[in-house]
């Protein structure tokens, strides 16, 4: 955490109303960017910046994207407030985003101690999660200043072609479902919905919830946001929700708290989203398949690095099982078994 703290405090004092800023601690959660809680004379704030180890000419793009979309969404959905964006790398060595601190907890496998430990608590969070997603998808993005943000044209086709090509050129094991499902997705692409703001990694673990009661406080981690097909967000949320079709499933920790008796089903959540947005679920099987397949294609890249001896971690080793599990769930989803 080698940030230039005096320079950071000086820049913040000159460009915001905050005084006496100092680094308090690194916050957990997220792999792509560094998240720090800062203390100030006016209370805590949060700094987001690319990690020092991943600096490249494009390393800041995710944080820059997050800054822009958060500013567009202010007052429209539950997101942290943008306090400042700094693209001057001379301040701390890379660009950074300063946002308000939201007092909340990211929920993974257990409910907070103050919540009733019941399915009703999980269901309340699930309903709020789907309602917030519907609200995000209904933001008038052109009016919000995002008319030139992202490229919604051929959104799905470009994603499918990109990841098929990457996996075909960088294959380290026999995964026939990777290509067969990619071909199925390409051959069966439905007409897209009207484009909307897309979070890109929307699930319970990427939100903050109140500590004292089951209430969604903020949606965070917007570095993958774009303008695209909203059903891609819905598919990603649903793929991690509730019982899974493969045991052990890929990434079982994500939304693990939802895997208990009497929790709302994926279909119930999907129908709630459809009722709120007015969008059809006729092709939802396709989008579930796409969500599982795309994630498998992405993370297979980390397994490739492990096989080639370039990385060695529990996460990378675990992908030996995780990727085939995701592909098996993708195949089940394509047939409507989800």
Detailed description of the structure:
With 338 residues, the chain is α+β, with helices and mostly antiparallel strands. It folds into 2 domains: 5-100, Phosphorylase Kinase, domain 1; 119-334, Aminoglycoside phosphotransferase (APH), C-terminal lobe (Aminoglycoside 3'-phosphotransferase, Chain: A, domain 2), CATH 3.90.1200. It contains 10 helices and 9 strands. The chain has helices at residues 5-15, 61-73, 119-137, 142-146, 155-169, 176-187, 230-239, 266-277, 284-307, 314-334, and strands spanning 22-26, 34-39, 45-49, 82-86, 96-100, 196-198, 207-209, 216-219, 226-228. The protein has a 5-stranded antiparallel sheet with strand order 1-2-3-5-4. A hairpin with a 5-residue loop joins strand 2 and strand 3. The longest helix is centred in the C-terminal third of the chain and has 24 residues, at 284-307. The N and C termini lie far apart (42 Å). The model has no long low-confidence stretch (mean pLDDT 93).
Secondary structure class reads alpha+beta
Biggest β-sheet: strands ordered side by side in the sheet = 1-2-3-5-4
Number of helices: 10
Q: What is the CATH homology-level superfamily of the largest domain? A: Aminoglycoside phosphotransferase (APH), C-terminal lobe
Could you say which overall geometry the principal axes of the C-alpha atoms support?
globular
- Helix and strand succession? HEEEHEEHHHHEEEEHHHH
Uncertain residue segments: none
Tell me the CATH topology of the largest domain. Aminoglycoside 3'-phosphotransferase, Chain: A, domain 2
Oligomer: single chain
- Percent helix range: 40-55%
| Straight-line N-to-C gap | 42 Å
Give the CATH class of the largest domain: Alpha Beta
Number of separate domains: 2
Strand content: 5-15%
Q: Characterize the biggest β-sheet.
A: 5 strands, antiparallel
């Amino acid at each position: 955490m080698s940030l230039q703290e005096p320079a950071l405090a000086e820049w913040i004092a000159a460009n915001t109303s905050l005084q006496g800023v100092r680094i308090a601690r690194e916050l957990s959660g997220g792999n792509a960017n560094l998240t720090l809680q800062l203390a100030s004379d006016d209370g805590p704030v949060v700094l987001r910046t690319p990690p020092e180890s991943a600096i490249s000419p494009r390393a800041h793009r995710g944080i820059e994207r997050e800054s822009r979309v958060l500013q567009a969404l202010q007052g429209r959905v539950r997101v942290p407030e943008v306090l400042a964006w700094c693209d001057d790398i001379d301040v701390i060595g890379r660009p950074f985003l300063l946002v308000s601190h939201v007092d909340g907890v990211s929920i993974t496998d257990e409910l907070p101690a103050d919540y009733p430990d019941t399915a009703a608590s999980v269901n309340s969070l699930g309903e709020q999660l789907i309602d917030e997603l519907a609200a995000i998808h209904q933001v008038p993005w052109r009016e919000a200043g995002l008319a030139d943000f992202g490229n919604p044209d051929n959104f799905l086709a470009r994603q499918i072609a990109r990841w098929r090509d990457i996996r075909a050129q960088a294959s380290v094991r026999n995964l026939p479902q990777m290509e067969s499902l990619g071909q199925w997705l390409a051959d069966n692409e439905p007409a897209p919905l009207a484009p909307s703001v897309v979070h890109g990694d929307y699930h319970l673990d990427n939100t903050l919830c109140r500590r004292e009661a089951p209430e969604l406080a903020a949606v965070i981690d917007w570095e993958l946001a774009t303008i695209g097909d909203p059903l891609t967000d819905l598919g990603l949320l649903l793929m991690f929700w509730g019982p899974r079709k493969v045991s052990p499933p890929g990434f079982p920790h994500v939304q693990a708290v939802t895997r208990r008796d009497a929790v709302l089903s994926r279909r119930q959540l999907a129908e709630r989203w459809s009722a709120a947005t007015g969008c059809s679920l006729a092709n939802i099987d396709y989008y579930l398949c796409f969500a599982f397949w795309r994630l498998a294609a992405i993370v297979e890249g980390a397994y490739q690095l492990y096989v080639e001896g370039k990385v060695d971690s529990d996460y990378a080793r675990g992908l030996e099982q995780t990727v085939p599990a995701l592909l098996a769930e993708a195949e089940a989803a394509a047939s409507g078994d989800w």
